[in-house]
Amino acid sequence: MNADILTKAAATGDTDRVRILLENGINPNAVNRFGKTPIQVMMMGNTRIAELLLMHGANPNIVDSSTGLTPIHDAAREGFLDTVGMLVRNNANTNVRDRRNLLPLDLAKENGHEEVLAYLKSLE
Fold it and tell me: Which parts are the ANK repeats (predicted)?
């Protein structure tokens, strides 16, 4: 299944494979057998993968049906400022709340990621 191949490449940080798969027409919003898209499982610290997925039309606002998290929630929680910035530049919604009613900036604060918190507050 093509979606499984692309999500695995994104999750493991295989930038070259992600690029090749996308250039060969695999849908960046295809759902794998676990119900996840590549941008939801990508290696959050790999901005090149985020950029490739977004350039090929990945939805930065895809919501995880079980948690209500979006990719920007995940990147903020893990403290990946560059990825947060990349998502914001590609129209990620910073005002969406997860199932716990938390915003991405709340997750950055909760996990002690001051730079990400400051950046997200600067967008308000």
Answer: 1-33, 67-99
